[in-house]
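Protein modeling request. Please complete all fields; requests missing the sequence field cannot be processed.
Requester role: graduate student
Desired output: 3D structure, token encoding
Chains: 1
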Amino acid sequence: MEPTVHPVDRRPETKQLVIIRAGMALLEGELAMPPSPRGLVLFAHGSGSSRHSPRNRFVAQALRSEARVGTLLFDLLSAEEEQDDVRTGRLRFDIDLLARRLIVATDWARGRAPCIGYVGASTGAAAALLGAAVRPNDVAAVVSRGGRPDLAGYALERVRAPTLLIVGGEDSLVLDANREAMTHLQVETRLDVIPHATHRFAEPGALGEVARRTAEWFRRYM
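Delivered output (222 residues):
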């Protein structure tokens, strides 16, 4: 019997700038979709990061090419709020605000892809888990990269999306926080520790390993 040959879809991915209104705030983002995406992953950053973060963009590219999911890199704070946060560092720890913005983006994204996932970094991981707890029927999977899932508090017990926690082996405080969060998550959860990596995964090969494991998680659950 002749082997079955499946055609390769060589259409280019599409990218567009988007603006999502959240109350009085206008949130800017970049939507990128590969051909025939299996889902759409929203990135929730924190602690002074933005949609321009090279780490987020690196992981997003891997998701589009390796997991065939679209990505939405967007800012959870408006331009004015970002300027205020640079001065005070206040808004990046307002988990309720960040989660509400993520839920608004989730509502915007529904209908644009078969299913939705979250990638959260730093305090954005807590916002992602809080959002997943509020919208259990909308979120298929969550990945936390160097995140603070413990800041989601009691909402962790209501999360229904399979959750992957990725932490650097040398990021001891964040590693302890992730282990604490795992005791409250009542869903399929895995903690992956990248050996010798620090908080930003700047060591050779570390971020590539993060991207590979993130793509594998979404391939499995989306």
